[in-house]
């Protein structure tokens, strides 16, 4: 089991909100891995938008714009 940035308990909450009655440890870890990978890519795009605008600070508008790609 690898350490992630996102908590595994949060993954269980998300899956249960989505309708799962029970969630395996492997499923929680898999969701965490997928979400972290997606978030890293999204973050990288948002950083590029901020830099293009001449800023060091990433704003919510950068993240929203990056998510629409």
Give a brief rundown of this model.
The chain is an all-alpha fold and 69 residues long.
Structural commentary:
The protein is mainly alpha-helical. The chain has three helices and no strands. Helix 1 crosses helix 2 (about 25-50) and helix 2 packs across helix 3. The model has no long low-confidence stretch (mean pLDDT about 95).
Helices and strands, with pairings:
Elements: H1 8-17, H2 25-52, H3 60-67
Descriptive keywords:
elongated, mainly alpha, 3 helices, about 70 residues
Strand content: under 5%
Number of helices: 3
Q: Helix and strand string, N-terminal first?
A: HHH
Which descriptor suits the 3D outline? elongated
Could you list the spans in which at least 5 consecutive residues all have pLDDT below 50? none
Report mean pLDDT, rounded to a whole number: 95
Specify the structural class: mainly alpha
**Main pleated-sheet profile:** none
How far apart are the first and last residues' alpha carbons, in Å?
A: 32 Å
- Count the strands? 0
Measured as a percent range, the helix fraction is 55-70%
- What radius of gyration results from the CA coordinates? 15 Å
């Amino acid at each position: 089991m690898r350490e992630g940035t996102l908590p595994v308990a949060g993954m269980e909450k998300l899956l249960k909100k989505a309708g799962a009655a029970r969630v395996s440890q492997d499923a929680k870890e898999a969701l965490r891995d997928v979400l972290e990978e997606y978030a890293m890519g999204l973050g990288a795009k948002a950083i590029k938008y901020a830099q293009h605008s001449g800023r060091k600070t990433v704003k919510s508008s950068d993240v929203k714009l990056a998510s629409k790609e």
